[in-house]
Design brief:
Structural class: alpha+beta
Radius of gyration: 21 Å
Number of strands: 10
Distance between the termini: 41 Å
Order of helices and strands: HHHHHHHEEEEEEEEHEEHHHH
Low-confidence stretches: none
Oligomer: single chain
Bound molecules: flavin-adenine dinucleotide
Strand content: 5-15%
């Protein structure tokens, strides 16, 4: 076992860190406050070549990319997790030769934006119970239904869209300018990930050709779950980034803030919190990297390891953010300091791409197996 990243990956990590510090971090607070999806920030990051290098070099490189992004801005990290982890993966793994020819390049280079439309008002964790329905006729398919909470949805050029059909759930690759494809911003204000362009989508008589089917008719659930493995690596790695940002903020604050005539970092209770945060951070990072390694190796253990990583890393990041707010005192309770944003973003990560409850279900089922009757 070698825990070192190796020269190439270590250099890449440095390069991503530099690009994120220069391009993403400075605007993170403003985008969050304005709830503004920042295409310009994404384009500038793409121009550094760092996302493309990650795609080319696989899961471990992408895990490092997501971690560095998560440290600065979870909305931008979420953008890339959906674009590369969910949408590009679906096209590469399940797409026809023509779908790959048309979409893989523009998605990998982020010339076109993708979204992943699975969740519906009445179908969240129970993703098999979709109401959106696709009916087949001679010319193709007609889709009717509704989705909500779709990340990147406002800017997306193409959607991986899941619908029930007479032969079970089916995935479709649908340009968002197809007549009958409607979208509007989600009502209310999100707790976190405010710059993610979440939308509600409605499909009214949305007509697509037979060639829009992604994978096999009736195999949509497999397409959805296959992509979610890659997405979960993005979420787990992004959570490690938030956790690291919390620790960095607390160490800095613990050195600078003085009370009772000493640095607050010299109080044993603060030290215990910092030490626990560091121990959990190390555990999280190892779990995320192990999951990346198993995913890259195509191992059968990957699904369980990804669920473990998503569960642990997101819960641990939230605990770290919770402690970080307390350690910052009243300052932590204000958007003047970033730790409250870390908490709001980490909370969302316990929910999407399978809630923490659902990750526990996946892990427990993989341990127990099906009862033999
Ligand atoms: C920031 C954000 C971004 C998102 N982006 C996308 C996106 O891009 N595309 C997309 O399709 N969706 C997206 N979603 C939706 C997200 O995937 C769903 O919210 C999530 O799957 C949970 O579904 P739900 O909200 O309907 O909750 P429900 O499924 O209704 O769950 C409610 C509660 O019941 C629990 N529960 C449900 N079933 C079980 C069970 N079997 N055992 C134990 N507990 C259970 C849940 O864990 C939860 O606590 C996003 C959500 C958020 C918050």
């Amino acid at each position: 076992v070698d825990f070192a990243l190796g020269t190439e990956l270590a250099r890449y990590q440095e390069r991503v860190r530099g690009a994120v510090a220069e391009i993403v971090a400075p605007d993170a607070r403003e985008s969050d406050e304005k709830g503004e999806f920042r295409r310009d920030v994404i384009d500038r990051l793409v121009a550094t070549g760092t996302p493309a290098w990650g795609v080319e070099h696989g899961s471990m490189a992408l895990s490092l990319f997501y971690e560095e992004l998560g440290r600065a801005d979870s909305s931008v990290r979420g953008f890339f997790t959906v674009q590369l982890g969910l949408v590009l993966t679906s096209v590469m793994v399940s797409g026809s030769a023509e779908q790959r020819r048309r979409w893989a390049g523009p998605l990998a280079q982020v010339k076109e934006i993708g979204c992943y439309a699975l969740t519906e008002p009445e179908a969240g964790s129970d993703a098999r119970s979709l109401s959106t329905h696709a009916d087949r006729d001679q010319a193709g398919w007609v889709i009717n239904g509704e989705k909500h909470w779709i990340t990147n949805g406002g800017a997306a050029d193409v959607a991986v869209l899941f619908a029930g059909s007479e032969r079970g759930m089916t995935a479709f690759l649908v340009p968002t300018d197809t007549p009958g494809f409607e979208r509007e911003p989600m009502p209310g204000r999100e707790l976190g990930h405010r710059a993610s362009g979440h939308v509600r989508m409605r499909f009214r008589g949305l007509r697509v050709p037979h060639e829009a089917v992604l994978g096999e008719v009736g195999q949509g659930y497999q397409v959805a779950m296959g992509a979610l493995r890659h997405g979960r690596l993005g979420v787990a790695s992004g959570a490690v980034g938030i956790h690291q940002a919390c620790l960095d903020a607390c160490v800095d604050f613990g050195r600078r803030r003085r009370q009772f005539g000493q640095r607050i970092g010299d109080f044993e209770m603060i030290q215990a919190a910092l030490a626990d945060m560091k121990a959990e951070l190390d555990a999280s990072r190892l779990l995320a990297r192990r999951a990346a390694w198993l995913l890259a190796a195509g191992s059968e253990e990957a699904a369980q390891a990804l669920a473990v990583a998503k569960l642990y890393c997101c819960d641990a990041a939230l605990r770290a953010a919770d402690q970080a707010i307390l350690i910052h005192g009243a300052r932590g309770y204000s958007s003047e300091f970033p730790v409250e944003r870390y908490w709001r973003d980490a909370k969302g990560m316990q929910i999407y791409e399978g809630t923490s409850h659902i990750q526990r279900v996946i892990v427990a089922r993989s341990l127990l197996g099906k009862e033999e009757r």
